[in-house]
Amino acid sequence: MEKKTTTPPVLFLRFFRWYCHPDLLDYIEGDLLEVYDRRVKKLGKRKADLKFIIDVLLLLRPGIIRSRRRQRTNPYGMYKSYFKIGWRNLLGNKAYTLINMAGLALSVVCAIFIFSFVRQHLAVDNFHRYPERTYRVVTELHRDVVAYQSNVPSPLGAHFRNDYTYAEKIARVYTESDALITLRKEKELVKFKETGGIAFTEASFFEIFHFPLLKGKPAAALTEPNTAILTERMARKFFGDKDPIGEVFWFQNRFPFTITGILQNLPANTDIRSEIFVSYPSLQTFDPWLADDTDGWGGIRDGMKCYVVLKPGVPTAQVEGVLSAYVKKFRPTSKNVHHYKLQPLHDIHFNAQYGGPVAKSKLWVILIIGAFLIITACVNFINLATAQVLRRSKDVGVRKTLGSSKGQLFGQFIVETGLITFAAIAMAAMLAYILFPYINAFFQTRIQIDLFSDPTLLLFMLSVGVGITLLAGYYPAAVLAGFQPVAALKGKLLQQRRGGFNTRRTLIVAQFVIAQVLIIGMLVIMNQMRFARQSDLGFDKEAIVMVTVGRDSTRTIATTLKNEIARIPGVEKITLCYAAPSSNIDWGNSIRFEGSTEEVNFRTSIKSADADYLSTFGLTLVAGRNLVPSDSVREMLVNEVMVRKLGLPSAEEALGRHIAANGGRMKGAIVGVLKDFHDKSFHEEISAVLITTYTEDYSSYAVKIDLANARTILATIEDKWLQLHPDQLFEYEFLDDSIDGFYKAEETSLRLIQTFSFIAIFIGCLGLYGLVSFMIAQKTKEIGIRKVLGGTVSHITWLFGKEFIQLIVIAFLIAAPIGWWSMRQWLQDYKFQVPLDAATFFWALGGSCFVAACTIGYQVLKTAGTNPVKSLRTE
Length: 875
Hints:
By secondary structure, the chain is an alpha+beta fold. It is built from 30 helices and 25 strands. The strands form three sheets. Strands 1, 2, 3, 4, 5, 6, 7, 8, 9, 10, 11, 12 and 13 form a 13-stranded mixed sheet that branches. Keywords: Cell membrane, Membrane, Transmembrane, Transmembrane helix. It is found in: Cell membrane. This is ABC transporter permease.
C-alpha cells in the first residue's frame, strides 16, 4: 500500500522551491517531508506545521538573504567573497598550498631566466641605424669540402667601395685579440691584457653601428694614423678620473696611439667585444701585408671583417654576383675557390657556420624546456586539485543547493588558483633577485632583471600568471562545478568522477615523459662530453703547459729561453712550436705536391715545430723518422690523413716525396708519417697535417712538467721569462684546460639541462608526494583492514607502488623514442660520436623509478607500519 504524505503549509513550500536549487527537492525537501509526517503523527498537524515553518526559516536564514541582496547591489561583493573563501580554503590546507606554490615558484623562476636569456639573444645588435640593410661579407671556401669563414681578404672592402655603387656605407675592421696595452707613467710601466682585443677600424664603422661618441668629433675621431677611441669603461680602467683625451697608450710596446674620442659603454646585447678602436691607416705600420689593398688576396686572416649597408632596393643576389668577379680576377688558378656571400646582420649571432655563439635551434630547445617546466608545475596543480575533490564535494553540493550557479562555482575555484599562482609568482620574483647573480656565474651569462623598470618582463610575468591560472585551474574548476548536488551531498560520487582518476594518471604520465626526456638528454650529453675528454686523442695532453713566446722574441732569444727552462728541476720536456697538436689556433694552407704547378684540392693544417715536438707530445711515427734540428724548412712530417688525401697507397710510399707550401716559400721532403691525432674538437674530422721547422712561426713553448711541483716550476719559468721580456705579460695555459675549452658551449648546455632536469624531477616529486598523501588519507581504513587480515608491510607498499611504477614505465615507453630522436639530431654536430646504447635509456628508467620510490616510500612505509587499531579508528 502506498504511503500517504501529509501536505505541509503550501506558502512556505512554494517559497522554498522558488528560492533553492531544484535538485534540493530530491534531498533536503524529502527529508523535511519525512520529518513532517512523523511530527504530524506524534504532535498533531498544528505543532508539526509550526516546526516545519521554523525548519524552513532556519534554512532561509537572514544572513544568506542579506548576502544575496548585497551581491545584487554591489557587483564587487561576489568577487570579494571569492577571495575571502579562497584565502580561507588555502590556509585551511597548508600542505596542498605549499606544494603547489613551491612547484609553481620554481618553474616561474626558470621561466624568468629563460625569457630574459632568449630575449637578450634575440635583441643582439638590433639597435643599429640600418639593421635591415646591414650585412657582413663572409667567405665560403670550396675545396674537397666546403668551409665557412666570417672573414674576407683585406682588399675586398676597398675594391668593392671603388668599383661599385651598390653600397651606401662600407667599413672594414681588423681585430687583434688578446692585446697587450701598456701605459708609461713616469718610471712605471703599467700592463694590461685586453681579451676583447684592439680593432683597426675605418671611420665609417661608426656610421653603420650605433655606438654613440661621448667626447671627440665623430668625423675626425679615426681618420689620422695612430689615433684611437676607447669606451668610457676602458678609459676609466686606464686613466681613472683623468680626462683621457690626448693621452697615449702603447700596443705591444711598439705602437703608440693618441686618444681622440670616448665612446659610450657598449651594451650587453652586441657581438662587438673590442672596446679599443684605432684608426685603420695604422694597420700599415702594424701589418703591411694585411694593409695592402693590391696584393692581399692570397689568404684570409682571422679577424678581418667587412660590413656593408646596401642602398634601399638593392638585391643581395646581385651584389653576390659582382663579388664573384673578384675570385676570377684575383684568384684565377687557386684550387681554394672563394665564394663571397652577404650575411644579414640579424643572422650573425645565430649562424654557427660563421662562428655565431648561439643557434636559434638551441633557443627553441630552451624555450620548449621552459614551457615543459611550466606544464609540469601545472600538471602538479591539476593532479592535487582533482585529488581534493572528495573533500570539496559536499561543500559544492551545499553551495549548489543554496543557489550557486555553475559559473559562480567555476569562478570561485579559478580565483583560488589565481591566488596560489600570483603568490608563487611573487615568490619567484624574490627568488630571481636573490639567485640571478649565482645563476649568471654558474651559466656564465650576463642577464640582468629589474621588475620595476622593465615593463616587458612585468607583462611576461603577468601573462604567465594568467596562463597558469587558466591552464591549471580550468579542469579542476570544471570538474568541481559540474557535480550534481544530490550525489555530492550523499557522498555517492564515483572514484572516476571524484577527481578524474584516469585524468590524473594521464597527467602523471605526461609529467614523467617530460622528466625522462630531459634525463635522457642529460645522460647523452654527459656521455658525449666524457667520450670527448677521455678518448685517446693520439697525443699526450697531461701535465703540459703552453707558455706564450714573447712578442719581441728573436730566434736567438727563444732558443736561449728554451734551454734555460729545460734546465729547471721538474721540467721533463720542452719544445718550441706554433701550437699544440690540438688547438683553436690553426694555419690553414694549400700545398703543391711533387713539383706540381697546381695546388691540391684539400686544406692542409700547418704546424711549425722543432725536433722536440714529437717527444714532448708523445706523437707516434708509423713510418720514417723525426725531423732533424734546423733553423729553416728542410724536412716535413705528415699524418695518415695527408697520405690518403694525396692518393698514396701506404705511409712508406710518402717518404721522400716533396711538398711546397705557403705559396712555395716552404719546401721540403717528407721524412716521416705520423699516426693520426685529433687536431681539433670532436665536432670536426681530422685534418691533413704538415709539421715542419718554420722558426718564424714559433709562438709557444710547450713544457711537460712534474705536476707535484707545478707551482714552483711555473714560478721559476715566469722569473726566467720576465728576465728576457720585462715589459710584457707572462701568459700560460694547461693544455688539457685548453682542449676542454672546445666544449664550452656543450658545458653550458649540460649545466642548463642538468639544472632543468633536476627541477622537473623535483616538481614531479612534489606532485607525487601530495598525491600519495591524499591516497593514503583515503585508504587508511583499507590499510588497517588489510593488516588485520594478514597483509604484510611489503604487500601494502606494493599496493601503492605498483600504480606509480606502471605509470612511469608507460611514460618511459613514450619518452624513449622522443629522447632517442632528439639526441640523434644533437649528435649530428659531432663527427666522432658516443653510441646511443640501451644503458642510457635503462639509467633514465631506473633513475625515474628510484626517485619515485624515494618520494612515496617513506609515507607508504610509515602508514603500512602503523598500528591497524589506529587506522581503523581514523575518520
